[in-house]
């Protein structure tokens, strides 16, 4: 059995592998004009700041809702707590991206990319949780949210890779 490298360096290396695959995918998508890419890169720090702050605020609400799920226990509770922790990490990464993005450093873009990966993982876990509910409504709602999030992440990923070259390694 192959050993997985779960050190921070190993996780970053895995993320760079995913980045290479996605860069190859998105290079075939239509491209925005240079001026539009520049404008997106200019407002990216502010979008990251606002998104990170609202993310943390909404996660406080989610945490309050999660307290009612403690009665359910088991796997649903564990997945819910994991989703909450991933959301916090993703929001903090967006906040950490602010200054490097303003300085046009690639580190800021990387923080946004890692946040998007964590967000996608969180959506998958949320979908898994909703599929474990007994109600048909819960499953349908979870599927709808999953499809909406998938479309949103495809578009966000495309925009993220459109501005990737606007940021330099330091």
Automatic annotation (TrEMBL):
<feature type="transmembrane region" description="Helical">
    <location>
        <begin position="109"/>
        <end position="128"/>
    </location>
</feature>
<keyword id="KW-0812">Transmembrane</keyword>
<keyword id="KW-1133">Transmembrane helix</keyword>
<keyword id="KW-0472">Membrane</keyword>
<feature type="transmembrane region" description="Helical">
    <location>
        <begin position="43"/>
        <end position="65"/>
    </location>
</feature>
<feature type="transmembrane region" description="Helical">
    <location>
        <begin position="71"/>
        <end position="97"/>
    </location>
</feature>
<protein>
    <submittedName>
        <fullName>Uncharacterized protein</fullName>
    </submittedName>
</protein>
<feature type="transmembrane region" description="Helical">
    <location>
        <begin position="140"/>
        <end position="161"/>
    </location>
</feature>
